[in-house]
Amino acid sequence: MSQPVIDIRDIAFAWKQGPQVLDIPAFRVDAGERVFLRGPSGSGKSTLLGLIAGVLAPQSGTIHVLGQDMSALSPSKRDRLRADHVGVIFQMFNLVPYLSVTGNVLLPLRFSPARRKAAGHDAEGEARRLLARLGLEDAQMLKRRVSDLSVGQQQRVAAARALIGAPELIIADEPTSALDADARDRFIGLLSEEVARTGASLLFVSHDASLAPLFTRAVDLAAVNQVMNRAGALA
Amino acid sequence: MSALFSLAWASLLNRKGSVILTIVAVALSVALFLGVEKARSGAREGFGNTISGTDLIVGAPTGSVNLLLYSVFRMGGATAEVSWPTYEKIASREDVAWTVPIALGDSHRGYRVMGTSPDYFEHYKFGGGQQLTFAQGEPFADLFDAVIGSEVARELGYTPETPVTLSHGLGAADLGSGHENRPFRIRGILKPTGTPVDRTVHVSLEAITAIHVGWESGAKNPLADTIPEEMIRSFDLTPRTVTAIFVGLERKGTILTTRRAINTNRSEPLMAIIPGEALAELWNVTSVAERALLAVSAFVIAVGLVSILTSILTSLNERRREMSILRATGARPHHIFLLLVFEAGLVGFLGAVLGIVLIHGLIAVLAPLLQAQYGVAFSMGAPGLVDLAVLGAVTAASLVIGAIPALTAMRRSLADGLSVRL
To answer: Which of B10, B330, B417 sits opposite A108 (nearest CB)?
Structure first.
């Protein structure tokens, strides 16, 4: 069996002086999987993504990402792991306002020599190919300021940015919550195609349970996070 | 590194309006500082270039700075004079190669009149050994000939043969104060030198004696005007006193012993100064004021730098999202830090460059005017070491100051994690 891309065991996390947010005995994502993680807002989804991306560290437990034990790595090693192997898509406002569309797509290559290498010598061409596959092929559009793009277009630019340089893991935090139903399905379809093409794994987080059929596997955060069960028991 | 640099550049371009204002603030402060510095070094250079080749200046005892100021720079006045026999004694010393006596005290329409010997045009040197040269005419030959500096000629519109009269004392206006009975004729006009020579009317020592016939009591005898010119020409016009003496030595090596010999002269108290040494003493006096001025303008630069800090700090809140995007796409905390430090450094660098361009442009345009109106000489020419040093210092200081917002942004981006709650 292949090595899991994400392997979480017995992690606990609380914000400084706050209540415990996460208590997850086990959670894993295997290579090539496209996992849908459902949870209502405030359920600790973004915190979990922060832990997986390595910008947060759990108080206890272990997180392995691509076989690396995150808690054993220094913050700067975790940063490097993320830069080289993880693409991130946010809910909204994904783009750096002072960079062009292609400038935004190429952004991860500035920080990761590994992804620069993977993108090949014609990085701009690769960026344009990715954008075209995501339905953004209008040369005029590529020259516009990113703030002039529609939300749907912005999210596709963000997806291209997450995909460039073929990282092994894409994590997406409610990327479709600002899109209408048509645009949402189209976005998830295009993203899934590209993830499948590059062989990456996808962890897609949303509160919208109706999206579950679009993925290879769906997980309810309430089912893996013991904190929510306890809260539910108290209510 | 260069990736971050281009990112910083793009970020600055995105905020053109406020960034340009900050750059202008830095530029103005740098221009002010360099302007003060250039006026200062220009003044020093101008003073230093005024006299050369003269080993000693001899006058009646006074302050050495004072003697230098009135004999060379036509500033202030002498309180006592040197008698003619003493002058002759100095002139005949074996270690003395040449002497040029000068007599000051009269003026022409605000310009000082200097009585001297024709040797003056041969021995007086300026700007590292340049000799006085004539634009028109020649040295004075007749008793009532005058040679004027270039500025006198330009300002008063004089040409050779123009008749002029002198005033007793240093009155700015020519109110007919005494010497209008003895008209002079312009004989020569000197080429510009950038020294007080340009603002001087030169006549012979004998002419000074001649126009003071009838003034023996210190004021004008009412009968003085009745003495005809022919009679004056027949008098012995050897001066009784001179104001100062420029001395050139046979050998430079004897300068200290010669000075000592003159300073300890028995028959009449004398004072001999070495021009360079007296100039250094003058700089000592003025350096306090110079330092104060430089300190004030350095503080203005500090204000300019603080404006960089302010503009970046105020932009940080709205850029919080941008920082977390950068973090998510792989930027490490030190990248965030460097990005903001580079932004500050770029603003400082561009401000300093603009300031240097500004002050050099201003000097190029205004220098002739300032020189003519106020006699302030600015050192012209291509940007020099001082400009480079200021450029370097301002850029370095901006980088250091940029560390403050950079640390704030770095700490925040660590606390924010991937998701900023907006």
So the answer is: B330
Alpha-carbon Rg of chain A, whole angstroms?
18
CA distance B287 to chain A (A): 49
Q: How far is A155 from chain B (nearest CA, A)?
A: 13
Closest residue, chain A, to B11 (C-alpha): A98
Inspect the interface and report whether the beta carbons of B419 and A112 lie closer than 8 Å: no
Q: What share of chain B is helix, strand, coil (3-state, %, to 5)?
A: 55, 15, 25
CA distance B131 to B52: 10
Q: Which of A49, A75, A107 sits opposite B329 (nearest CB)?
A: A107
**pLDDT for the residue B149:** 93
A197 Cβ partners below 8 Å, 6+ apart? none
Tell whether A108 lies on the interface with B, counting CB pairs under 8 A: yes
* Contact present, A184 and A152 (Cβ < 8 Å): no
What tokens does B6 get?
């281009």
| Chain A residues inside the 8 Å CB shell of B338 | none
Positions in chain A short of pLDDT 50: 1, 233-235
Helix (H) or strand (E) holding A36, with range, is strand A34-38
Q: Sorting pLDDT into bands at 50, 70 and 90, what band is B126?
A: confident
What is the ipTM for the molecules in this complex?
Answer: 0.84
| Partner A, chain B 299-328, Cβ-Cβ below 8 Å | 321-322, 325-328
Instruction: Provide the pLDDT for residue B399.
Output: 94
Q: What global pTM score does this model have?
A: 0.75
Please give the C-alpha separations between residue A111 and each of A74, A87, B330, in angstroms, as whole numbers: 17, 12, 6
pLDDT value at residue A233: 47
Query: Which residues in chain A have Cβ-Cβ distances shorter than 8 Å to B340?
Result: none
Band (pLDDT 50/70/90 cuts) for residue B176 is: low
Using the beta-carbon criterion (under 8 Å), do B335 and A80 form an inter-chain contact?
Answer: no
Q: What is the DSSP string of B266-292?
A: SSS--EEE-HHHHHHHHHHHHHHHHHH
Level-2 CATH architecture, domain A4-234: 3-Layer(aba) Sandwich (3.40)
Interchain contact A183–B (C-beta under 8 A)? no
User: Vertex B369, ends B368 and B372: CA angle to 5°?
Assistant: 85
| pLDDT tens digits, one per residue of B5-61 | 888 888 888 888 889 999 999 999 999 999 888 888 877 877 888 888 899 999 999
Tell me whether residues A46 and B322 touch, CB distance under 8 A: no
Q: Which residue, among B14, B149, B332, B308, has the nearest Cα to A73 in the 3D structure?
A: B332
Tokens at B317, concatenated? 């809140």
Q: Return mean pLDDT, chain B.
A: 87
CA-nearest residue to B329 within chain A is A108
Q: What is the pLDDT of residues B212-246, one digit of tens each?
A: 887 777 777 777 777 888 888 888 888 989 999 99
Contact B315, B406 (CB under 8 A): no
Give yes or no for A53 touching B (CB within 8 A): yes
pLDDT of residue B418: 65
- Backbone φ, ψ for residue A117 (5° rounding): -65, -45
Angle, CA of B347, B352 and B357, to the nearest 5°: 125
A–B CB contacts, 8 A cutoff, strictly below: 76
